Amino acid sequence: MKNVLVFKTSVSGKSEVKRLKPLLNRLVNQSGYWNFDLEDCDNILRVETQSLTAPAISSLLQKSGFNCEELH
User: Fold this and answer.
1) Domain ranges within the chain, ordered by starting residue
2) SS3 for 26?
3) Residues 11, 52, 48, 19: what is their CA dihedral angle, to the nearest 10 degrees?
4) CA nearest 50: which of 34, 25, 32?
5) What CATH class has 3-70?
6) Which residues neighbour 27 within 8 Å (Cβ) at sequence distance 6 or greater?
7) Is-above-0.90 flag for pTM?
8) C-alpha angle 43/40/67, rounded to 5°?
9) Rounded to whole angstroms, how far apart are CA atoms 15 and 26?
10) Are 35 and 5 in contact (CB under 8 A)?
């Protein structure tokens, strides 16, 4: 069963999403899916995954220079 994790981020443009794409693709691998909603005021990142945890995703974005906070 897949979980949907939702995050508020500081990612604000398509060039930033393009920069994160290889990292997120590697992280979710073949078993997951991710997308950004940059139209939302919180620049939402949604991740569908079977095995990843919210801290792992937050850590990846923070190491890449972005704020990332899970929304509950």
Assistant:
1) 3-70
2) helix
3) 30
4) 32
5) alpha beta
6) 52, 56, 57, 60
7) yes
8) 15
9) 18
10) no
